[in-house]
Amino acid sequence: MKNILTVLALAVAGSMPVAVTAADPAQPATPAQRATPAQPATPAGAAKTPPQGVAPEAGRTELPPMFKELDQDKDGQISKDESKRSAETQSSFDSMDTDRNGKISLVEWSAADKSKQRSKQ
């Protein structure tokens, strides 16, 4: 039992990152090293990429209000469950989900919205 715990502890310790200092702690930092500000760490998943299904060229700064309201988990897509909050969206979900992945992306939403506006004219 003790051997198993030792192996597990070593495996866990081996998978952890080790902090390494660039400078020798015995030597003081130079003025140039002290003047260089440290770069803040970027939190995981904080990359500035658009949500799935959102075309980068869409250039939108704000989601359409109804899309935003329906997208409860804020993943940039409307699932079949989320569509149940709107009778109109729920009834047209299958026709809006053109890639048949079970979610309506902003691109699909915009295409359906444009189609709806053209039919009104």
From TrEMBL:
Keywords: Signal. The keyword Aminoacyl-tRNA synthetase does not apply. Gene3D superfamilies: EF-hand. It comes from the Bacteria. SUPFAM superfamilies: EF-hand (SSF47473). InterPro entries: EF-hand-dom_pair, EF_Hand_1_Ca_BS, EF_hand_dom. Residues 24-121 are annotated as: Disordered. Residues 68-87, 111-121 have a biased composition (Basic and acidic residues). Residues 1-22 form the signal peptide. Residues 84-119 form the EF-hand domain. Residues 24-52 have a biased composition (Low complexity). Transmembrane segments: none annotated. Pfam families: EF-hand_5. This is EF-hand domain-containing protein. It comes from Aromatoleum toluolicum.
